Amino acid sequence: MIDFQQKRKIRKVFYSRFMLVALLVLVIFMAKQVYDIYQKQGLSKEGLTSVLNENTELQNREKMLSSEIERLKTKDGIEEEIRNKFNVVKPGEHLVVIVDDASTSKNETVEKNTGWWGSFLGWFK
Q1: Cα-Cα-Cα-Cα dihedral of 6, 8, 13, 14, to 10°?
Q2: Is there a domain that residue 115 lies in?
Q3: How far is it, in rounded angstroms, from Cα 67 to Cα 2?
Q4: Per the structure, how many domains does the chain have?
């Protein structure tokens, strides 16, 4: 009989309103923690994606720079780089600069588009 009454007291404590409210609070607290971890997991996935993209870009840049270094190790590569940066020529070579005469074509176009009034005003410029 004592055993039956002890079980009854234990059930009364576990099924009391206080215990149910305490369990409900515990469940809500744990659910909030799970949701926060879920959000952090999403942020870490985004971070992983951006790090992988950056890693790929850096590997491509490393390949480009190593090929540039290999080009600059040759005599022709050094000469080409010096010519590009400092605009120099070897003794006996001549530098030819071709300039497009864009200023006259613009003036002709302006005169054609303005008509006789533009031509008249052109005399006073």
Answers
A1: 110
A2: no
A3: 89
A4: 1
